[in-house]
Amino acid sequence: MPKTPTVHFEAASTLAVVVSSNEPLLFLSDDQKVIAASASFCRAFEIDPATVPGRRLSDLGNGEWAMPKLASLLKATASGSAHIEAYEIELRRPNHKTRQLVVNARTLDDGEIDHIRLLLAVTDVTDARAETRLKDDLLRDKAILLQEVQHRVANSLQIIASVLMQSARRVQSEEVRGHLQNAHHRVMSIAALQRQLSTSTGGNVELRSYLTQLCQSLGASMIADPGRLSIQVTVDDSAVEADVSVSLGLIVTELVINALKHAFPDERSGTIVTDYRSSGSDWTLSVADNGIGIPVGSDAPKAGLGTGIVEALAKNLKGEIQLSDARPGTVVTVSHRESAGLQTDLSAAA
């Protein structure tokens, strides 16, 4: 019931309203004797209507309404020093399940202090509370199952990566060995993504830790001499949804692998920097190296699987790819601008 001041009433009309109400209502004197009860109250709590008038609230039914805390709050409400609003109680009766009730009370009077009366409204929320608990349990079980599946997937990917590496060591063909090693690196990076997701508590993923761990995993699996090559990560405090983090992680994986394979030939030393920045809905992801730069002419590498993966992921994120010469080195930038997407939509509509 809404918080309201004392309401003035005419006794006869109030009795009629209470008795005929479709809601469980009790009309009480200031000493908590029942003046009237609605038929719905009597039906809901299996009380004989003929036994209600004149009895104290604590004596109704088999005494299950004798609740000291409720009685104290009703007394304070009658004196004007308190209000009962959405107060939750448990009604316990022999051979019945416990019921969760929400009670609201306010005072009614006819202008004379000796005629203070209380109107008590009762709402049964047992089923609603049970449904909420069930939903909470299902969500918790789903989260636990998802984490377990992600953990198992990460372990399985690591096993596959190990088999690929063993196969690469055994084959004689350099070309086949290169393909197996590339497959190994990609599987290891995806395993790293899955391992991080399996430890996530759900919700958004904090990118600084996420991309740092990913690049550490790539470095551990692909850099034989950490003194010669290194991978650095600079990320702001951005957090994104889990599916977005996976796409960003795969883009970083492909760009870092490409830099490690092509930017530092002949045992050159260098650094690869992964950077992410966001402002509102706009964001920019870049992977830069200080290697040999962009090959041109016949030395330019052919677009391969990695390029196709990055282009597809960027398109899925509604991002644009830009390749630039860092002199020395190369920078690949994937950026998303909300205003650019809006302008495109407006142009299409026109």
Automatic annotation (TrEMBL):
Keywords: ATP-binding, Kinase, Nucleotide-binding, Phosphoprotein, Transferase. InterPro entries: HATPase_C_sf, HATPase_dom, PAS-like_dom_sf, PAS_4, Sig_transdc_His_kin_sub2_dim/P. It catalyses: ATP + protein L-histidine = ADP + protein N-phospho-L-histidine. It is an enzyme of class 2 (transferase). Gene3D superfamilies: Histidine kinase-like ATPase, C-terminal domain, PAS domain. Residues 243-340 form the Histidine kinase/HSP90-like ATPase domain. Transmembrane segments: none annotated. It comes from the Bacteria. It holds the Pfam family PAS_4. Its EC number is 2.7.13.3. This is histidine kinase.
